[in-house]
Amino acid sequence: MADVIWTADLERIAEELGLDHPDFDRLQSYVTLVRTYPMDSATPDDYIRENLEKWIEWETQSYYGEHESPADFVRYYVENYCELGNTPNWLAIDYQHTWDSALRHDFHFESIAENLGYVWAEVY
Questions:
Q1: Is pLDDT larger for residue 3 or for residue 87?
Q2: pTM score, two decimals?
């Protein structure tokens, strides 16, 4: 199997299959992260064709946006997904500490530039 599935291959095959994704660079990062099982296909292109639709679905469902840092993601997550007045027992005042001690186990942060990275849920 090819060590890398390239963004251009994902875009080309998605176009052939009539599939769309808003950011193929982001999708390529996600595919690199989750494709840990063996390839049974004859060629890398066949492998992509067999899996691309589910990769797009999974990536879209688990994507939590771009954030400046894991701590910035924790702040976003708490503000958007935690009930007001019901502080979760895993929340630390220090957002970086909250990331390190709790959320990093359920989310993956991948730096893509200085002070910017993608976040996905449950990719392991």
A1: 87
A2: 0.74
